[in-house]
Amino acid sequence: MFINLLNREFLRALGLAIIIIGAPLGMYMNYFISNSSWSNILMLMGVLLIVSYRNLFEFKFPSYSKAFLGVIVFHLICFLSMQFTENFRYIHFHFFALALMIALMSTRINKLLNIDLIVRTVWILSLICSFLFITHLLFIQIYSHFLL
Asked: Which tens digit of pLDDT belongs to each residue from 20-47?
C-alpha cells in the first residue's frame, strides 16, 4: 500500500472539497494566475482524487445503485443528443458528471463521506478564496490611491 488509509481519506475529502468549492477557486485562479479554464482543471483533479483506482481497474463498483445508473444514463442521453446539434457549450459538464458518477461508484460511499474532514477542508479552501479576494480588493485600493 503506497497510500495508507488516513492519507487516502484525506485525499478523497480534498477531492470532494475541490469539487464543492472548485468554481470560485478556479475563478480566482483565472484572475490571479492566468485566464485559462482552471475550474475544469480543478473539477478533474477533484474527480481524480476521489476515484478508487483499484476498483475501477477491476470493474468493481461497490456503491453502484439505480440512482447512479439513472444519472449516468441521463448524461449519456444528453451527450448523444448534443452530437446532432451544433451546441457543444456544456460538453465539459456532461463529461464531468459522468466521471464523477463513475468515481463515486468506484468508492465505498460510507468510507468516502467523513463529513468532519470534508467540512474542514472546504472551510480551509473557502478561507483561501476569501483571503485572495480581500487581498485583491486591498491591492486595488492601494494601487488606485497611488494613481491619484
From this structure: 888 777 877 777 777 777 888 888 888 8
